[in-house]
Amino acid sequence: MNEPTPTLRARKHAHTRVALLRAAVEALAARAFDDLTVQELCERAMVSEATFFNYFPAKGDLLTYYGQLWGIEAAWHDRRSGRRGLAGIDAVFAFAARGMQERPRLWSELIAHQLRGGGRSAPAPVDAVERCVAFPDLDDVESVPEARLDALLLPHLEHAVHHGELPANTLVPAALAQLVALFFGVPVALLGSRSDGIGHLYRQALGNLWDGIRTRAAPHG
Asked: From CA 171, how far away is CA 164, in angstroms rounded?
């Protein structure tokens, strides 16, 4: 069955939201988020300030929106990679590291936004039209479930336990919390100085985490 053609209103909504986000991403290449004005972003995206606030009640919602889109893109790559367990976790972290190396300031702002409590209220889901506008080269991106980082990592962690990559008595909630802490903690340490080292430090930190889990589970004589 063919999907219904999106309405003009839906297409305009999607293009406007994505255009405003792209304006912010481009501006963040050289300036801090706090220094960007709504007026400047609107001029870049060629929309009015009234239109901006119709789509994003606060400027910080742009960062939340970026996080949503990143989660969809990461889930798409996760699905296509076919990797599971610890290899799947490695792939998610490697994908994140590449993005952080390309846009260190953006990711610094996104992490700071999260630490300040941004995005605690559930944002509106990203609809199929927005996904296609944001990711025109990703086939079937409309079908990818929108998931938070912990939801993306949890199936891989459970797979690793069930298939013997990690001990059967691994405390999955604790391991998941450690993974999320690593995900955000490593870039906090490096984004302001050497973003090119994020991938290496991720791999090292993940290896240390798995070694620690296995050591704690080993019998002690």
From this structure: 14
User: Cβ(153)–Cβ(161) under 8 Å?
Assistant: no
Q: Are 96 and 183 in contact (CB under 8 A)?
A: yes
- Token output for 83: 């990797």
Q: What is the pTM of this model?
A: 0.91
Q: Which domains does the chain have, with CATH numbers?
A: 63-217 (1.10.357)
Burial of 140 (0-12, 13-18, 19+ CB in 10 A): exposed
Mean pLDDT of 188-217: 86
- Smallest CA-to-CA distance from 156 within 95, 66, 219, 218 is with 95
Tell me 138's DSSP state.
S
pLDDT tens by residue, 96-146 = 999 999 998 999 999 989 888 765 567 889 999 999 999 999 999 999 988
**Cα separation, 9 vs 137, whole angstroms:** 22
Contact 184, 205 (CB under 8 A): no
Q: What is the pLDDT of residues 64-90, one digit of tens each?
A: 999 999 999 999 999 999 999 999 999
Nearest in space to 101 (alpha carbons), one of 216, 220, 193, 203: 193
Q: How does DSSP assign 144-198, residue by residue? A: SPP--HHHHHHHHHHHHHHTTSS-TT--HHHHHHHHHHHHHHHHHHHTTT-GGGH
Kindly list the distances between the CA atom of residue 77 and the CA atoms of 83, 131, 160, in Å, as whole numbers in the listed order: 10, 14, 19
Look-up: residue for tokens 């938070």? 148
